[in-house]
Amino acid sequence: MQLSDRTCLHCLRPLSAICFDKRGKVYTKCYGCGARTFAPSGECLRGLALLTDFASKIAAEMDHDPKYARENARKFAAFIEELRSVAAPPPVVSAQDLANATAPGERVA
Ligand SMILES: [Zn+2]
Questions:
Q1: CA 30, 75, 48, 41 torsion: positive or negative?
Q2: Are 69 and 75 in contact (CB under 8 A)?
Q3: Which three-class secondary structure state does DSSP give residue 84?
Q4: CA 49 / ligand 1 centre spacing (Å)
Q5: Ligand 1 centre and the CA of 26: distance in Å?
Q6: Residue 2 confidence (pLDDT)
Q7: Ligand 1 centre distance from Cα of residue 79 (Å)
Q8: DSSP conformation letters of 44-59
C-alpha cells in the first residue's frame, strides 16, 4: 500500500510515494531522484506531513518565477559547494544533477 503523488522533499518533484514495509514501518521513495527515506518512529512523520505541501509550493513557484528558480539554484549550488568543502571523498553530484535542480516540476520519463 502506498500514498502516491507526494512532493519529494529531496528533489521537489511530485513523484514521491509514502509506503509501508513488511513490518508496517513508513518510508518514502521517489521515482524522480531515487531517494528512499525511512521513518523509524512516528515523530519522523511530522515533517513529512507538514513539509510536503510546502515543498510543493516551492516547486510550483520555481516553475512560474525564473528569478526565484535562479535564486534557489544558486542556494543549491552553494549547498553542494559547502558539502564538497567538508566531505572526503567529495559527494557525487554531477553537472546534470545541478541542471535538473532548476526544474523540479518536470516529470521524469
Ligand atoms: Zn525525489
A1: positive
A2: no
A3: helix
A4: 16
A5: 16
A6: 64
A7: 17
A8: GHHHHHHHHHHHHHHH
Ligand 1 mean position to 17 CA, how many Å? 10
Ligand 1 centroid to 91 CA: how many Å?
Answer: 17
Query: What are the distances in angstroms from CA 107 to CA 16, 48, 53, 100, 102?
Result: 11, 21, 18, 11, 13
The Cα–Cα gap between 56 and 62 comes to 10
24 CA → ligand 1 middle, Å:
22
Between the CA of 67 and the centroid of ligand 1 the distance, in Å, is 22
Which grid coordinates belong to 29? 521513495
106 CA to middle of ligand 1, Å?
A: 11
Q: Can you give the pTM of this predicted structure?
A: 0.72
Cβ atoms 47, 54 nearer than 8 A = no
How much distance in Å is there from the Cα of 77 to the middle of ligand 1?
17
Distance, in Å, from the CA atom of 4 to the CA atom of 10, rounded to the nearest integer, reads 15
pLDDT digits 0-9 by tens, 90-106: 667 776 776 666 555 55
